[in-house]
Amino acid sequence: MKKLGVLLGAAALLLARGASAEAVVRRALVIAHNGSDDPSLPSLRFADDDGVLWAETLQRLGVETTLLVDPDEATRATARPVLAGARPPTPDEVKREVARLRAANLVDHELGRQTDVLLVYVGHGNTDEAGRAYFTLASGRLDKASLYADVVDPLGASYVHLIVDACRASGVVGSRGGQTDAAVLAELRGMLAREQLATRPTVGAVFAESEDGETHEWSRIRAGVFSHVARSGLMGAADINGDGKVEYSELGAFVTASLQGVKGLPSRLSLHAFAPTREPRRPLVGPAPKGPSLPLPSGLEHSRISVEDSDGRRLADVRRSKEQYVLLRLPERDVYWIRTPTQEARITLAELSTSGIIDLGDRELQERGPAEEALRKGLFAVPLDKDFYERYVAASGLAPVGLSQAFPPSAGGAFPRFMARQSDATVGWDLGWTGQQAPLGLSTLATGPTVTWRREAPLPSLYYGARATYGLTPLATDDIRTHRGALLGLLGAQAPAYLRVPLFLEAGAGWGFLGITRGQVRMGDPTVLSTYTAAGVTGALAGVRLRLAATLTYDRVTLDQRNYWDRAFGFELALRR
């Protein structure tokens, strides 16, 4: 018995270590600094706001996050909880936090766990008198040598992911970074370039730059454009295969698609994404814990969605194809504003976990000026769909994710029963073709066209409309052919989108007629009471929206002075418009 206990204990320990080995502990160090040590560069406006949003986003995604920031007065006034433990972004604080992260990583390694550290920097990028690139800290600098020797390498993490937004600000749509010539731009790029990372196979990097070395801030979102787009992607907008993880190829494709439509600025942004060479498909973030989440189901009418908080801070943006499912995992707020380019709705945190409909009302666009207009129209103008993703991966050389599965909600995040009204699914026309049993019990098939018009009802998931059908028996039975037509009122119900099951059920009643021909003999009943029920599914095939249904009709017909109900089973395939 004692030996058995020892064996069981050993087995339990091995299983525990095996389970721990599969776990990945994610930590992050976010460094954000508005200031500059170069008198020719004015202080940034939103680097500190970006730092706060980066910390909140990563914490929501299950990443243990430390924030080093010296917030300005406006940012301190927000009293965000992450600011309570924030420390200034000085060289000493960076070294202190790197040492703490190293100690925590070593403990996890002893327990058999892998560790990933995300290092996020938002601030000024510049070069010194000798042409060496550096990032600005409070009372100090972080140059290429110290970035790797004093920060990246000492972390002792299994993998390190660098995300850098290093630039300067001016005007309503400002810029981050100095006015750089080609040599200075090359030096700044060299701090994070593929050649630098080649000797570190467990380090990856993501950063953006423009043709003249500047990237951009936008006062409308109170953030840097690249940081905002990257955060939106990590929240779930970039998760093209719906597995709850965001890999380099997914984030790279999403940021590239989101920036592609921006025109009218002095220079265009482009993305550089280098995955760790040892594991090219290493995710930057994994499945998120339960928390505030906004599902955007396939078939949703609105493809361009923005989420803001009650203070007007933009939390996330996404441009999706109508067939794509997206689950945005949002930082916690008491109130959210869901906005499309022309409409908006206010929802509370509690409503994110309850079933309901977003009642979108008209909104006013307040952006002004050519740069504001360029960003408003161009940013997130291109959706990240399968075609764009595959073209991006082919061009970038990054390892692709598998796209064989649909886009289910991740098991790692809450799936709130919450949706926007799918008006495109319940308003429009169906043009179809039906086949059913021939009337009067004839042993043949009747077939013909159908036309259905639908309009959304005031109650959720319900619609009403009208339906017209005509059917004949193309093959005569005993030289008998039938002609049947009907014009019906219609009432239907569609499964709520949060169920992600495209089922519908509808019924109708109205006027019909039935005609019979046999040779030169014609007879019929023009006053038939006709009823109809159907159940089926909707979907898309090669971009064409379809509807497939099983049908049942009952007609009250008069034959030989007798009234009786004539039943017919059938099917219908229709194009949806």
Automatic annotation (TrEMBL):
Annotated signal sequence range: 1-21
* Family annotation (InterPro entries): EF_Hand_1_Ca_BS (IPR018247)
Q: Does the keyword Signal apply?
A: yes
- Keyword Signal, does the record have it? yes
- Region spans: Disordered: 278-301
Query: Any idea which UniProt keywords this protein has?
Result: Signal
Q: What is this protein called?
A: Caspase family protein
Native organism: Myxococcus xanthus
